[in-house]
Amino acid sequence: MSGLMKKIHSIPILAVLVIAISFSSHEVYGTSPSITVSPTSLSVGDTLTVSGSDFIPEKTVYVFLDSQMGDHVVVAVDGSFIVSFPIPTSVEPGPHSITVSYNSDGSNPLTLPVIITIIESIPEFPFSFNLAIIFVAVAAVYLVIRQKMPTNFKRY
């Protein structure tokens, strides 16, 4: 084979190598991004923490609660991220999905949805309501004691 033919054959090989190197390790090695959430059961107003691994380093990821963006963060050089955000008051109790995307509109999610459960929180009663309950209890005890007392006093 002549020297010119060797150069012509080496150009496509060199091009393939350049393209392969330009891909991140995710595409080359076939690793898939993954996420974990904590806690998996929470109430409205509680803080949800989402952790990810095997993402493209230094790229922004967007975390979604169903179709609502929860928050976004830049991935660390090791391909991981951690982001926390409160569960909005507009979220209804029940199961909800968490997904992550490189797109701010949530298209082409990178991970399978992770299901979390929003539970109904028991409302805290205001202090004045607690005082009303105490007042009613004391009044009831007073009435019971009064009924047991004799009502016909003799005057001397």
Structural features, described:
The protein has 156 residues and is an alpha+beta fold. The protein has two domains: 1-30, no CATH class; 32-119, Immunoglobulin-like (Sandwich). It has helices at 3-22, 25-29, 127-148, and strands spanning 34-38, 41-43, 47-53, 60-65, 68-74, 81-86, 94-101, 114-119. A five-stranded mixed beta sheet has the order 2-8-7-4-5, with no helix packed on it. Strands 1-3-6 form a three-stranded antiparallel beta sheet, with no helix packed on it. A hairpin with a 2-residue loop joins strand 4 (60-65) and strand 5. It starts with a helix and ends in an 8-residue tail after the last helix. Mean pLDDT is 76; it is low at 14-29.
Summarize the helices and strands and which ones pair or pack:
Blueprint: H1 3-22, H2 25-29, E1 34-38, E2 41-43, E3 47-53, E4 60-65, E5 68-74, E6 81-86, E7 94-101, E8 114-119, H3 127-148
Parallel strand pairs: 2-8
Antiparallel strand pairs: 1-3, 3-6, 4-5, 4-7, 7-8
Provide a quick synopsis of the model.
With 156 residues, the chain is of the alpha+beta class. It contains three helices and eight strands.
- Helix amount: 25-40%
- How are strands sequenced across the largest beta sheet? 2-8-7-4-5
Q: Give the name of the CATH architecture of the largest domain.
A: Sandwich
Q: Can you tell me the CATH topology of the largest domain?
A: Immunoglobulin-like
Query: What's the β-strand tally?
Result: 8
Would you identify the CATH H-level superfamily of the largest domain? Neocarzinostatin-like
Beginning-to-end CA distance, first to last residue: 140 Å
Largest sheet: 5 strands, mixed
The value of Rg in angstroms is 32 Å
How many helices in DSSP terms? Answer: 3
Principal-axes geometry comes out as rod-shaped
Number of domains: 2
Structural class category? alpha+beta
User: Beta-strand percentage?
Assistant: 25-35%
**Average pLDDT figure:** 76
Order of helices and strands: HHEEEEEEEEH
Low-pLDDT windows of residues:
14-29
CATH class of the largest domain: Mainly Beta
